[in-house]
Design a protein that fits this description.
- It is elongated and about 60 Å long.
- By secondary structure, the chain is mainly alpha-helical.
- The chain is built from 8 helices and no strands.
Length: about 150
């Protein structure tokens, strides 16, 4: 990856770099990661570029990876657009969701299932909420409505 550094970004490290670094790696909130990426993209320094490259290649939420890509492009980096995720983002997702569903009383509501998932596996909830966007509820409802094998 090369850098032309011909954009008008600030070329010193932000005062809150450590805080942004933590936010960029926070698994419990894709929104925090997205906000950190957007702020980091205003700083044309080796550490911020390295962190953005890490997010580009390692984040599970496409929106966050895409934002890192756009910021790196603005900073003159030679990067490739990330691919959209296909398949499960978490190994054994169906087992986890089935276990949560079975842990609830018979006749529970979709909202109870959704709330239990959010409380017990925020990492899964948050990642899929970010990845699915507006289709998250319908995707989760379809899983909830699928017959559970007991």
């Amino acid at each position: 990856m090369t850098n032309n550094h011909d954009i008008g970004a600030v070329s010193e490290l932000p005062e809150n770099f450590e805080e942004l670094k933590r936010a960029a790696n926070r698994t419990g909130s894709w929104r925090d990661r997205l906000n950190a990426v957007n702020e980091l993209g205003n700083w044309d320094t080796a550490p911020t570029i390295k962190l953005l490259q890490h997010v580009l290649t390692g984040d599970q939420v496409f929106q966050v990876r895409e934002a890192a890509y756009r910021k790196l492009k603005q900073l003159g980096e030679d990067v490739q657009m990330p691919a959209k995720n296909k398949g499960e983002l978490f190994k054994g997702l169906n087992k986890v969701l089935l276990r949560i569903k079975k842990s609830l009383p018979v006749g529970h509501t979709f909202e109870q299932f959704k709330e239990k998932l959010q409380k017990t596996r925020l990492d899964i909830y948050d990642t899929y909420e970010g990845d699915k966007g507006t289709e998250f509820d319908s995707w989760l409802r379809a899983i909830w409505e699928a017959p559970a094998r007991r």
